[in-house]
Amino acid sequence: MSIDTRLAPARPFRVIGTGAARNQDVDLVECIACGRQGVTTFLEPDKRPLATIWWPMSESEAKAMRRYPHHFVRCIHCGHVFNKSFTYADVPYTRKSNLMFNQGTYWKGHLQAIRQLLLRSLPATPVVVEIGCGDGSLLREMAKSMPAGKFYGFDPNAASVTEDGVEFRGELFEPNTHLRQLRPDIIICRHVLEHLQQPMRFLEQIAVVASVGTAPVRMYLEVPCVDRAISICRLSDYYYEHNSHFTTSSLRAMLYRVGGVIESLDRYYCDEVLGAVINYPPERKMKEAAAETLGHLQSSQQALTNIGAQLDVLARRDVRVAVWGGTGKASSFMNLCGVDSNRFPCVVDSDSDKWNTYVPGTGQCIQSPNVLLHHPADIILIPMSWRARDIAQEMRRRGITCSQILIEHQMQLVDFESGDHPY
């Protein structure tokens, strides 16, 4: 069933039951699908054991299993259902994998339909990555159809082997590493997001890496759909290992929040599954922002080198240097640039509340500026360039003189009186 991919509010759902409806307080918890705050209790909180990842071998072991908190809430904005008490680390995936049962007749028909959908959109020699590939059945069948392609399956429980045309990697998929390394034509992520603590954040990682890349990244997502479960108040869907329960509206809202182009959003398998194809293209603004940030990093490294060299020269000269400002940005500058207490012991500050306290990290005692009347400084260093004009005026008012005032500007220390700067 094809679904309108335009963003729309969550539709109200019918609640089966008797008795008068009760008002619910809204809990200011952030929705893990749309990122907005505001949830209400969806099921009465309780504690139950793991349902699918731990198979006890005896009745006594089964009854003694640890109980985990189940507090399912629903977002009032997008309709997403999730367990606000969920902790991913509590689920021992390393002990037993969470393989889906893929042998049902109708389910196999669904897998075949998805395989054909994906194959139609691929080039002749594709690179295909599946996150959470399980037993690799989908990838193996795709590799048979396109033997010239490269197929990679990521699953922390998989053996790291290459077989049936698929390279299986027993590790988690790391977007920042593997997207750049493999450059896939499509990423398949089926029945993974519902297990994650922060599914939206995971998709954002993929979208961001794609946005600063050189080619679009297409992705096929598949998650269970609880639209029907909600409408008929079906209770069996909600267990600990499934942290997230997507409605059509919550999946749509998450995809819009992350960005990219939603090519399709459909229901499958008697409306019990949601599937979406998303295209994450490179974005010029993000690439420009990344390039600008890299430029700033390189400039800041050069600034530290330049200012460090200038401070070394000052320390070797037979001059008395005072630093004006001892906390906040001044303290940050002193720690960053190595203005230590041995070479630069004199620190003053305009704020009397700071006198006789010490510079965080470097340890100089912060004194009144009047100390410079009795022990004049040859050079006064003002780390907060934007305050230099006010400080120079204060110096005149107090009768404090010096040979030179230095401020930071354009990756070096410059003369406040004669240098080229906007302050």
What is the fold's blueprint, element by element?
Elements: E1 27-30, E2 37-41, E3 46-48, H1 59-63, E4 68-70, E5 72-75, E6 81-83, H2 105-120, E7 127-131, H3 137-145, E8 150-154, E9 162-163, E10 166-169, H4 175-182, E11 186-190, H5 199-211, E12 217-224, H6 227-231, E13 244-245, H7 248-258, E14 261-268, E15 273-280, H8 284-316, E16 321-324, H9 329-337, E17 346-348, E18 366-367, H10 371-374, E19 379-382, H11 388-398, E20 404-409, E21 412-415
Parallel strand pairs: 7-8, 7-11, 8-10, 11-12, 16-17, 16-19, 17-18, 19-20
Antiparallel strand pairs: 1-2, 2-5, 3-4, 5-6, 6-13, 9-10, 12-15, 14-15, 20-21
Main features:
21 strands, alpha/beta, Rossmann fold, elongated, single chain, 423 residues
